[in-house]
Write a structure and sequence with these properties.
Blueprint: H1 3-47, H2 51-66
Length: 67
C-alpha cells in the first residue's frame, strides 16, 4: 500500500470521529438551550416573571456566592 493511501484513510477516519463528536456536542447543546428556553417561557406565561427578573436574580445569586 502506498503511503498516500494510508494517510488518506487515516484522514477520513479522523474526520469522521471529529464530525461524530461535533454532532454529539451540538445535539447536547441544542437540547439544553431548548430546555432553558421552555423554562423561561413557562415562567413568563404562568407566573409573569420576565427575562429581566430572571437575569437580575441570577446576578444577585452570583454576587452572594462571591462574597
Amino acid at each position: 500500500m502506498p503511503i498516500e493511501l494510508i494517510i488518506t484513510i487515516a484522514a477520513v477516519v479522523v474526520s469522521l470521529l471529529v464530525f461524530t463528536w461535533f454532532l454529539k456536542v451540538f445535539k447536547s447543546t441544542f437540547g439544553t438551550a431548548l430546555k432553558i428556553a421552555l423554562i423561561a417561557l413557562a415562567l413568563q406565561v404562568f407566573f409573569g416573571i420576565g427575562p429581566q427578573v430572571i437575569w437580575q436574580r441570577m446576578m444577585e445569586l452570583v454576587q452572594q456566592v462571591w462574597k
